[in-house]
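Quick one:
INPUT:
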């Protein structure tokens, strides 16, 4: 094994031993599962978001301005 081969091998082993790769497969799998869930259940998710927005708007409209100024 030549010096170039040794340096390349040692550099590659150092890269693979780092923390940057830890959990990369699990994160990719989690993102894939989340996208699949949203694709299959987008209507209930959108309905819940719209409901939460509507409740927030009603609460903002009914809150007295003097209460907020205090």
């Amino acid at each position: 094994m030549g010096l170039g081969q040794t340096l390349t091998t040692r550099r590659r082993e150092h890269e693979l031993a780092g923390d940057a790769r830890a959990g990369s497969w699990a994160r990719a799998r989690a993102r894939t599962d989340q996208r699949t869930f949203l694709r299959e259940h987008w209507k209930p998710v959108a309905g819940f978001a719209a409901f939460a927005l509507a409740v927030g708007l009603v609460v903002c409209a009914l809150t007295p301005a003097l209460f907020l100024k205090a």
